[in-house]
């Protein structure tokens, strides 16, 4: 039976500067995937940050059940990538124009180079299939689109 991985009931952030207009009522079931979309300033980041515990609650409750994970911490079980994170550590030595400079591409690592090896082959295959990564493994990191870069980071 599927269970709530993250559940918040009537959540209100303690800090009035980061409160949403209404209390948060939210649940994410096991097996569900979430994309939060909306216009600038709508509260997308505040919602996610509150759900993930960045802002302590004044009212309401939040619960996490990451089973069967060995650890129950949000840090170990949730990957949150914002647009500004897409251009961080993975490509810190590159700039946008380098995508078109062939001589710079020679030294750039591929997605496969940066992903490295793992002992858990079954998990690797499951994740590669989920994110359709096989087609990206031989692609240079500086040639990834912003969407491909986000998939790589996940």
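-> sequence recovered:
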């Amino acid at each position: 039976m599927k269970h709530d991985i993250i559940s918040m009931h009537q959540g209100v952030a303690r800090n009035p500067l980061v409160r949403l207009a209404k209390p948060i009522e939210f649940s994410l079931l096991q097996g569900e995937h979430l994309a939060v979309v909306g216009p600038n300033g709508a509260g997308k980041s505040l919602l996610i940050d509150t759900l993930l515990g960045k802002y302590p609650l004044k009212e309401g409750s939040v619960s996490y059940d990451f089973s069967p994970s060995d650890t129950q911490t949000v840090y170990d079980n949730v990957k949150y990538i914002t647009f500004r994170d897409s251009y961080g550590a993975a490509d810190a030595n590159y700039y946008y124009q380098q995508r078109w400079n062939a001589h710079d591409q020679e030294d750039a690592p591929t997605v496969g180079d940066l992903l490295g090896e793992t002992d858990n082959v079954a998990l690797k295959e499951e994740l590669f299939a989920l994110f359709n990564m096989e087609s990206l493994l031989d692609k240079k990191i500086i040639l990834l689109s912003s969407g491909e870069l986000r998939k790589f980071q996940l």
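Strands lie at 4-13, 24-29, 57-64.
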